[in-house]
Amino acid sequence: MTLFSLAQKNIQRNLSNYFLYIASMVFSIVIYFTFVTLKYNDEISALTGTSQKIQGLMNASSIILLFFIVIFIAYSNSFFMKKRKKEVALYSLLGVRKQKIGLMLFFENLVIGLISLVLGIVIGFFMSKILLTILVRLMGYEVVANFTFSGQAVLNTVVIFAILFLFTSLQGYRVIYQFKLIDLFHAEKQGEKMPRASVFAAMVGTILVGFGYYTSVTDIFTSSIWRFFTILGTPLLVIAVTIVGTYLLFHSVSVFVLTALKKATAWSWKGLNLIGVSQLLYRIRGNAKSLSIIAILSATTITAGGAVFGIYYNTESSVRLAMPNTFMWKGDTVDFSQKDVVYNEALNVKNLRVDNDFAFFEYTLLKESDYNHLAKLQGVDRELHVADGSTILLDTTYDERFSHDFTGEAFTLENGESFYVEKMYTESVLNFFPAGTVLVVNDQEFAKTNAEDMVMQAVGMKNDLKQQELSKVIYNQLSPEQQESFSSVPQSYEDSMAGVGSLLFVGSFLGLVFLAATGSIIYFKILTEAEEDQAKYAILNKIGVNGKQMIKTIAGQVAVIFGAPLLVGILHSAFALTALSQLFNMDITKPVIIGMLAYTAIYAIYYVFTVRSFYKIVKQGAK
After folding, report:
1. Where do the H-state alpha helices sit in 186-253?
2. I want to staple 328 with a disulfide (CB 3.0 to 4.6 A). Which of 176, 205, 431, 555 is the partner?
3. Which of 42-46, 388-392, 516-520 is most confident?
4. What is the pLDDT of residue 620?
5. DSSP readout, 2-47?
6. Nearest-5° angle of CA 514, CA 520, CA 521?
7. Cβ–Cβ contacts within 10 Å for residue 6, how many?
């Protein structure tokens, strides 16, 4: 029997153990191959002028993805090597030379890598059409992508992953030279170094995480902490203290909680609770570093995904707030089809130059009658009545944290005229570009004001987001000066969706890869510990503990290992996303909840799969 055939038999025999490892690698290769394929895809270039930015985004994302995959595969491979050390020791005991054992492990890892690579590229080729269609739909284009085969993408993927799998195979080859025979037999008993819990560490961890939470939700423009550590330094500080605090929480706080449960005899002496909490106490302490990393990765994934999904979710409302009219421009009207036109108004406005104590700006002066007429056409339930010498200011960019409230103050024009600001509203009836901030005065004051007269066209359409072709027709008829002031809802929406949609695509699939990797890492760790617990569960089975009680205990233990980093990650991301929503003055509650539920649901699949595999292992040991 050759070493290659022996490696092949080992893979077939341990296929159930390798399945999730191979599946996670295949999934990672599929996503990487798809990103590289998109980088060389011409369809995106034909659809949008932002193709250069998207290509840059795909390049950066593929590098991030590759970096994470390298860590994941190296980490997972180390767990499999630990699991195989006893087998390696047995081969050595039977007289097989270390060189041959090393070559067998080398071939075995190389075969697994090549199988994953081939499957990943084949599946990636067929998935590329689906993923490309998802991308262009997220970008707002209603097209179906074609199958795309890129030789460059295949070559790129093969070279990168061949080097990676060669490295992990050499790692397997070297493992037998790093340990003595007795060490290999006792490898399964060698866990991570168990950190010692302390009251001081628990207090410091709680304080650090609390400080990170408090700082993240304080106002960036008014907080003394943000001023002291600066806008760039404060986020780095928050990230650093949260990471250290999270480790200390798993290192100490979780130990105190489990110890308290163990001492609560009314609970611990029920069923197998004492056994379960004792095993958890060891595993939480022994796995503090791993669980902390997984919690931080979960928080990062949920935060990034929630932020991008929140912006994507609010894209339309953001565009409509800044552009209540479908089209708007300065100057005369042009000829275009009147189909789906709700209104087409030529507005006489005046351009104001306002000189005050704060800054020097240009504003648009609008008649009260024109405002009320346009508001009625737009369905705005607000009618204005402005007193002589007064004005009502409309500013869609107003933010109380850093914008000046002019209510109750006088506006002084460059020509010496002034208006008393009666009220301010954050909604307008004119598009911010080209109108800017708008001052509404009554018709008599408008006629008396000595300012530059101009005509502004305002067009409202049905199905305004679908009017890209009409937008091009109007734009092409405008003079160069008019084109500079042209404002288009469908064009702005399309540009926003192209950028944010591509970010959502990248963020979603990177998040899935991170989730698959973290879920797999927990899976590998728990199954390694399950094999160590076979003897314990065999004893329990002999003294009358049935399968139902065993699986209940196993489910509880695994739930804590999966749930602890997930809950901490969700809590971290909740504060981070609260800070982002405050910063951008945007309600992202709904998309964030959807994202968290989706993340939890996928995590739950890993949990169920892990519980079943754990029970299968200990059940075999009981037999």
Report:
1. 199-217, 224-248
2. 431
3. 388-392
4. 72
5. -HHHHHHHHHHHTHHHHHHHHHHHHHHHHHHHHHHHHHT-SHHHHH
6. 90
7. 18
User: Taking the CB of residue 601, how many other CB atoms lie within 10 A of it?
Assistant: 9
Q: Are strands 390-394 and 418-425 parallel, antiparallel or unpaired?
A: parallel
CB 458 within 8 A of CB 347: yes
Helix (H) or strand (E) holding 355: strand 341-355
How far from each other are the two terminal CA atoms of the chain, in whole angstroms? 31
Q: What angle do CA 63, 69, 73 make, to 5 degrees?
A: 150
Alpha helices (H) along 176-198: 181-185
As a whole number of angstroms, the distance between CA 580 and CA 575 comes to 9
Q: What backbone torsions phi and psi does residue 186 show, to the nearest 5 degrees? A: -105, 20
- Phi, psi dihedrals of residue 430, rounded to the nearest 5°: -115, 145
pLDDT tier at 47 (50, 70, 90 boundaries)? low
In whole angstroms, give the CA distance from residue 345 to residue 522: 63
Region for 88 from its dihedrals, namely left if φ exceeds 0, alpha if ψ lies in -120 to 50, beta otherwise? alpha
Dist CA 297 CA 242 (whole Å): 12
Closest C-alpha to 134, from 504, 408, 396, 428? 504
Cβ atoms within 10 Å, residue 403: 12
Buried b (16+ CB within 10 A) or exposed e, 237-267: bbbebbbbbbbbbbbbbbbebbeebbeeeee
pTM of the model: 0.74
The per-type count for the chain, helices as H runs and strands as E runs, is 23, 9
130 contact partners, CB below 8 Å, separation of at least 6: none
B/e letters for 558-573, b = 16+ CB within 10 Å, e = fewer, are bbbbbebbbebbbebb
104 contacts 92 by C-beta, under 8 angstroms: no
What pLDDT band is residue 361 in, cutting at 50, 70 and 90? Answer: low
Classify strands 390-394 and 438-441 as parallel, antiparallel or unpaired. Answer: antiparallel
265 to 84, 146, 260, 273: CA distances (angstroms): 39, 64, 10, 10
Rounded Cα gap, residues 610 and 618, in angstroms:
12
Q: CA triplet 571, 573, 574: central angle to 5 degrees?
A: 65
List, in sequence order, the alpha helices (H) in 533-588: 534-542, 547-583
Alpha helix positions (H), 287-421 = 288-313, 315-322, 368-378
CA angle 446, 452, 453 (to 5 degrees): 65
Which are the contacts of 565, defined by CB distance < 8 A and separation ≥ 6?
Answer: 291, 292, 294, 295, 298, 518, 522
Grouping H, G, I as helix, E, B as strand and the rest as coil, residue 198 is coil
